[in-house]
Amino acid sequence: MKEENFLSIIGKHQAHQGGLISILEDIQKKDGYLQEQALRIVAQETGFSLVDIYGIATFYKLFSLEPRGKHLLSVCSGTACHVRGAERLKERLEEQLGIKAGKTTEDMRYTLETVRCIGCCSLGPVATVNEKTYARTDQEKIIKVLELYE
Description:
Blueprint: H1 3-13, H2 19-31, H3 36-46, H4 50-59, E1 71-76, H5 79-83, H6 86-97, E2 110-115, E3 127-129, E4 132-134, H7 139-147
Parallel strand pairs: 1-2
Antiparallel strand pairs: 1-3, 3-4
Helix pairs in contact: 1-2, 1-3, 2-3
């Protein structure tokens, strides 16, 4: 994204309480991740230190400092999902996609991650693709789900 676009986003949110997070959200939506250049411009224009901005960008799971794939796959690794087979689910996705959790496929189609809790423990194991939740899934169901996003 061009510097003018960053400045436009910053101007839109700068005066609002919580504006920094809104600025980072908008940049993430446009670019798919937070580039170093963007963080430096935000620091310069808002008066926040680069360290503070980096702290926010790395604290919230919403933000990524590296490009993500078109489809974000998340597998819950919380206790309820873990005991119901989430680890096998993750391993099956790693095998199918040819990547480890935390990585993105070379074609930038998928990013696979594990998360501590999705918030629907009674429905485990749970996975999400983008913002859609798939409950009580297993190794075979998750591959069928994946085919919906090809």
